[in-house]
Structure prediction request, 370 residues.
Amino acid sequence: MSLDELVRTAQARLASPTPSRRRFLGSVAGAAAGGTLLAACGDESGATTTRKAASDGSRSDPRHRPKDCGHGRLQINVCYSPYRTLRSEPAEFLPKGRTGIAVRKGPAPDAPIIYKHGNPVIMNVDGVYGRVSERDGGVERDCPAPPMRPGLGAGRGFYWGYPTAQSGTHNKGGWIAGVVDGTRYSVSEPDFPGIICGPADLDFDCRAGTKKNTKYKTGCANNARKEDPGYKCGGSTMKWGTCGKPVTMEVGIYRDPGEVDLITSLSHERYNLKYEADGTTIFWLVPGDVVARYCYKCTQRNPSERCPPETRRKDRSCCRSYSCVTVIKAAYVPRGVAGWVNSSVLRRKGTAKPEIDKALKELGGSFNGY
Prediction:
């Protein structure tokens, strides 16, 4: 069963009321006690691997490769449909004095708000975001616009999306209120004059439909990084890294060094569950979630300016590692979903509770940000 199919089959469960603040904090408080791991790449000591080289040149046991971790960028190609926000959420679900529509880590009115640079990611009323589709299957289907990713949460009324520059906030992806308890907070905006290409300008606007040379695809290169070509049908393949028998791990607390506040650290993309390492995000993991790790691989090595400052060295050490995991128990991800997460947030089973307790105390008992 594919990830998209697995998410669809989970609709009935996640269409019911999602974990409230109290239930979420209760599950976090129930995590087991223990120690912490390496800050840069997480713990790789628990993986059981073979010594045989895989076809991609890595040490990988093909018996322990979750299918849904096998998506290279060649097979992702999501698109974005413009949606416009209509009204503000109730004040009780927003930081004091703020109005608008928040981008959240889960499909629930009281799920944690995402932060960036110390600020909550809250879109203005009349702002625009891109609602994200499912995968289109890649080049074998000539990259047509895929169907919209289904909504989740109570009434399936929360949509996965990314704010645009017209939203008045940062382009951090997450769950956005569409229709909640009979109130519509955002609506499709097919006449939006801009082109929505995703956070790195590597995807395309769903209004392209089945057309190849439309501006909704060709225009998705203007703001891409110099080393990236912008959108194209296809892309790089992927490598598995080192795979072995699954190891149960918990999501803990990663603190950015320096002056970054804790609530912002908890909203770093290292907590994103992705189709591929350093690729498109599909869910947020939060402290206390439990996963089974099958594979890990280095995605960035020293010496490199792209390595986090605290991990830079002159040798060829790994400064950024990703792990292929399947979800065992998570606040906002269906059980069984697989993807890649930054290894720095993973902890050996029974070692996350002390750092979670300390973080909750520091934040007044809640990770929600309001």
User: Anything to note?
Assistant: Residues 3-71+238-362 form one domain. The first strand starts at residue 48 and ends at 49. Residues 11-57 have pLDDT under 50 and may be disordered.
